Amino acid sequence: MIELKDIFTIYDDDFMALDSINLEIKDGEFVSLVGPSGAGKSTLLRLMTRELKPSQGDVMIDGINIAELTTAQVPLLRRKIGTIFQDFKLLSRKSAFENVAFALEVSGAEPEEINEDVPKVLNIVGLTDKAKNFPHQLSGGEKQRLAIARALIHRPRILLADEPTGNLDMVNSYDVVKLLMKINEFGTTVILATHNREVVNAVGRRVISMEKGKIVRDQVEQGKYII
Amino acid sequence: MKKAFKRIFRSGWINFKRNSYLSFGTTGIMALVLLLFSGLMVLNYVSGQIVTGLEDKVDISVYFKNNASEDQVMAVEQDLEAQSDVASVTYISKDKALADFKTNHAGDALIQQSLAELADNPLQSSLNVKAKDSTQYASIVTFIEGNKLRSVIDKINFYENEAVINRVESISNGVGNYGLGITLVLAFIAVLVTFNTIRLTIYNQKNEIEIMRLVGGSNWHVKAPFLVEGGLYGIFAATIAIVIFYPTLWFVSSKVGVLIPGLSLLGYFGANFFQFVPLIFALGISLGVISSFIAIRRFLKV
Predict the structure, then answer these.
(1) Could you give the ipTM of this predicted complex?
(2) Which of A39, A119, B188, B285 has its CA 20 to 30 A from that of A31?
């Protein structure tokens, strides 16, 4: 369960990115976060990984106020949450296998566990034969699927996807969304920030519309892309 | 724990290898810095040797009148030896002085002839005094001047040597102070160059570091391989520096030996090989690790 209570986020240049946000996301939901660029979608996601702290208000995940976590506890939070970005954020000096393995290594996994789990996850996203390739040797769609594999390796309870289809064509976008829906079926909460109308309408689940830092519409079921 | 170390060293090594272009540059710069340090050590050694050599050559002689008895000379010698700032006193008797004079001028027929014609030994007995430190000669002379047997002393050649002694003293002080100052300044510049090179190398990977943090890497997990990488720069740089240093020393040593007789660079650095090599390695590794440690800190704030 994710709860956002009276959130305000003001950046250093006095830009108000989030303006009195109140939001509750239950376990296992698939939420599409829509709105034009600058509406505050990414800011909202970055609050949940403690990349940012809100200027005011509380971000609660499973009843814990994550603003109160110590620096040493932040990595533990991030291992519970998988994150996917528009620019993939892959480690360019590591191979596909190592990119996924790194996320496991940091949680202190044994080499045996790594050698067993990483191929499984690469298989789920269809990258088994690209395990030794480096990110620059992968196509856009493959990079994003690799990023999803990395996000999945911890079996996260929550998956945050920030414009995951932003750099992809229609076919690859569709693949990525199908993967996200499959992940959601296994019980992972998925929050998808996007301004891709087709993607949102294809998913057809809860849709939250944002504009200028505020939530302007919350369609709980069978949501469509409306701004 | 053992596995964690293995992972850290492995990924540090892989990072170093895959980064070969950058690693090559950084290692090269560090090797130059370590060579600079080695050069400074050579310079310090050479200048130290020169100053010691000069100081060794400085002494004063106390000449006694012909009517001074050997007992009186001995008494003065004992008084001098009791002084804490006197390093050594050598007694040269009239006979010894004559014998020395004869051997020094063995090839000079005219002098040999003149000596043979003399009935008496014209030379004076003397005490040769060496101070522990060249600054102490003035006070030793004052002590002799005040001695109860001053009346049998003919002359003290300090007054003729005073200018030379002062000059040696000022050179020795200059080398000590300026040498230390220059070494410190150069060492500081060397550390800055290394630090900046490593900082640029790490800055290049700042996105990677942020990503590692975002996928749940703890600070130490992200940092440790970079420290290993920094240490590897140091190890390779030290190896290169030593491989260049010793052959160069071998080449230069004979030439320096001609300029300053009795000085063997190769002998000194060869004898201290097992102190010098670990020192350069320790210097390289700590420069690399500490620079990495400081440089990476600011990218870990995500």
Answers:
(1) 0.76
(2) A119
Q: Residue A175's CB: how many other CB atoms inside 10 A?
A: 19
Q: What is the mean pLDDT of residues B158-184?
A: 77
| Domains: count for chain A | 1
Express each pLDDT in B20-63 by its tens digit.
777 888 899 889 888 988 888 888 888 778 777 777 777 888 88
Of B19, B208, B215, nearest to A78 by CB-CB distance is: B215
Residue numbers in A near B205 (CB within 8 A): 93
**Residue range of the domain that includes A100:** 2-219
Q: Are residues B185 and B276 in the same domain?
A: yes
Query: Using an 8 Å Cβ cutoff, are A162 and A84 in contact?
Result: yes
Place of tokens 């071998």: B250
C-alpha distances in angstroms, B268 versus B180, B265, B275? 20, 5, 11
Please indicate, yes or no, whether residues B48 and B175 belong to a single structural domain of this protein: yes
Query: pTM (2 decimals)?
Result: 0.69
Chain-chain contact of B3 with A79 (C-beta, under 8 angstroms): no
A-B C-beta contacts closer than 8 Å: 51
Give B87's contacts (C-beta < 8 A, 6+ positions apart).
Answer: B130, B131, B132
The owner of tokens 């492995």 is B10
Q: Which of A107, A110, A111 sits opposite B216 (nearest CB)?
A: A107
Domain end residue (candidates: B147, B165, B183): B165
| First and final C-alpha spacing in chain A | 26
Chain A residues touching residue B213 (CB < 8 angstroms): 75, 78
Counting every residue written for chain B, the total comes to 302
Residues A24 and A5: their CA atoms lie apart, in Å, by 9
CATH code: domain of residue A187? 3.40.50.300
Q: Are residues B154 and B176 in the same domain?
A: no
Whether A164 maps to a domain, the answer reads yes
For residue range B57-79, list pLDDT tens digits in order: 778 888 888 888 888 888 888 88
Are B50 and B70 members of one domain? no
Residues in chain A: 227
Q: At what angle do helices B158-203 and B206-214 cross, to 10 degrees?
A: 50
pLDDT in tens, A40-81: 999 999 999 998 999 999 999 999 999 899 888 888 888 889
* A contacts of B7 (beta carbons < 8 Å): 105
**A154 located within any domain:** yes
Q: How far apart are CA B193 and CA B295, in angstroms?
A: 13
Q: B111 lies in which domain range?
A: 59-165
H helix intervals, B58-157: 70-81, 94-104, 109-117, 137-145
Name the nearest CA neighbour of B85 among B143, B167, B2: B143
Q: Which positions in chain B touch A76 (Cβ < 8 Å)? A: 216
Residue with tokens 């220059």: B182
User: Domain tally for chain B?
Assistant: 2
Are the beta carbons of A95 and A102 closer than 8 angstroms? no
Structure-token pair, residue B32 = 């130059």
